[in-house]
């Protein structure tokens, strides 16, 4: 019985902590403690930056930097992700409107945002407010979106009709991934970091990456390798025919001012 009571108290504390973090996050959206940083994505052929991915950063007054991996799930559970997602979309489109014309911006979209029905309208609003051409916006979605239903599929087609590009994020981490590639024609597949990490090892990772690259090429999709940290990984990916890479080898996500400076000076290899 004692254990049981401790357990309940623990649950209660956790729920309280979550609730207070949720309230603080709601405030953070308006008070400047949330920022989008940008991680460059580099073309493996010419070494040029083709796009930058917007990644949320929360600088908490007392707790320091809180990882999006910790607060995005809370935002999703509470429905706050819709507001947060719109905030990121607006910020990223406004920022990218200052970049050279050939550089796209990629924005992560939560499966919860897909269920809200108004995603296409919200995306159109962010484009209109910023003046960014639709072709320079790329939305990153995960397989979880497609598991659900045909409404999600219809939302994807709506977005495509707007002219934005759609990338399948974290590819290879979900279930029966290959069937999703048939259900929707993505512009890009982002190969999950777990495969890139082991790509030079004895396991099957490099064969899996090769298979994904082949399938993508056969269906006119681009491939981006996530989490590239070493020269060896980069060279292997190039040999395997992967199109782009993203990772600490080139750059982590950096603040908007720094990315602007980088885009002005960087000209490939
Ligand atoms: P993700 O979309 O898969 O983003 C890639 C994550 O890998 C980022 O973590 C990035 O900083 C990290 N990363 C990049 N290169 C490397 C590398 O070479 N090595 C290693 N070890 N890691 C690398 P981050 O910024 O902590 O974001 C974590 C996740 O949070 C993202 O995963 C995404 O799912 C989510 N997230 C971030 N921002 C947003 C957002 O605005 N909206 C939504 N819905 N989710 C977001
Ligand atoms: Ca992503
Ligand atoms: Ca990813
Ligand atoms: Ca991920």
TrEMBL record:
Tell me the organism's taxonomic lineage.
Answer: Bacteria, Pseudomonadati, Pseudomonadota, Alphaproteobacteria, Hyphomicrobiales
Q: The organism sits in which domain of life?
A: Bacteria
Where in this chain does the record put each EAL domain? Answer: 18-267
Supply the name of the protein. Answer: Diguanylate cyclase
């Amino acid at each position: 019985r004692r254990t049981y009571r401790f357990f309940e108290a623990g649950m209660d504390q956790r729920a309280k902590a979550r609730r207070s973090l949720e309230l603080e996050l709601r405030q953070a959206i308006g008070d400047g403690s949330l920022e989008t940083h940008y991680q460059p994505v580099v073309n493996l052929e010419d070494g040029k930056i083709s796009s930058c991915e917007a990644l949320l950063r929360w600088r908490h007054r007392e707790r320091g930097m809180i990882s999006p991996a910790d607060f995005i799930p809370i935002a999703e559970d509470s429905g706050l992700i819709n507001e947060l997602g719109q905030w990121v979309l607006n910020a990223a489109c406004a920022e990218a409107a200052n970049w050279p014309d050939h550089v796209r911006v990629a924005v992560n979209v939560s499966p919860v945002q897909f269920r809200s029905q108004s995603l296409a309208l919200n995306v159109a609003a962010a484009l209109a407010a910023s003046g960014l051409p639709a072709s320079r916006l790329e939305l990153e979605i995960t397989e979880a979106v497609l598991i659900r239903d045909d409404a999600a599929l219809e939302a994807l087609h709506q977005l495509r009709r707007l002219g934005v590009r759609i990338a399948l994020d974290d590819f290879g981490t979900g279930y029966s991934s290959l069937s999703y590639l048939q259900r929707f024609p993505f512009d890009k597949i982002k190969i999950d970091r777990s495969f890139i990490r082991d790509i030079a090892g004895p396991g099957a990772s490099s064969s899996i990456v090769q298979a994904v690259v082949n399938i993508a090429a056969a269906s006119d999709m681009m491939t981006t390798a996530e989490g590239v940290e070493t020269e060896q990984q980069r060279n292997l990916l190039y040999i395997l025919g992967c199109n782009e890479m993203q990772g600490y080898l080139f750059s982590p996500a950096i603040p908007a001012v720094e990315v602007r400076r980088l885009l002005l000076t960087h000209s490939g290899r």
